Amino acid sequence: MSKASKTVGKVAGTNDIEHTQAKLHAEWKVDYYQKHHEIALDQLTGLSKWLTASLFTANSGGILTVLNQFEKVTSPREAALLFVSGLVFALLGAVANQHYSNKISRALPDAIFYWNEVKITGLTNSQRQSDIESSIHRAGERSWIGEALGWLSGSMFVVGVIVFSISLA
Fold this sequence. Notes:
Elements: H1 3-6, H2 16-68, H3 76-121, H4 126-140, H5 144-168
C-alpha cells in the first residue's frame, strides 16, 4: 500500500480525533439551533399575535368609550390621546417583533446549514463560525424593543382609563 493511498479521505494536518470531535459538536449544535429556531419563532409570533390583538382591542375600546361619552367627560382629548398613543405603540411593537423575528429567521438557518456541513465533513472554519455566532447575537440583541413597546401600549391604556374615569367624576 503506497503512502498516497493511506491519506485518501483525510485532510493534511488534521487527525481523525479532531474530525470526530467536530462532528459530534456539530451534531449537538444542529439539534440545538433547530430546537431554538422553532421555539424562538413560535414564542415570538404567538406572543406578538395575541399581545398586538389585545392591545389593539383594548385601546380601540377606550377610544370608542371616550367618543360615546364625549359630552359627559371634562377632558376627553387627553384620554383619547392616551388611547391613540396606545394604538400607535401597539402597532410599533408589532412591527418591531416582525422585524426581529425575520432577522432571527435568517440567522439561525445559516447556523444550521454550517453545522450540518461540519457534521458531514468534520471540517470547521473559525472565521465563519464567528460570523454566524455574531449574526445570531445581533439578531437577538434588540428583540426586547417589541416587548417594551407592548408594555408601553398597555401602560397608555391603563393611564387612559384612569384619566377617563377621573374626568367622568
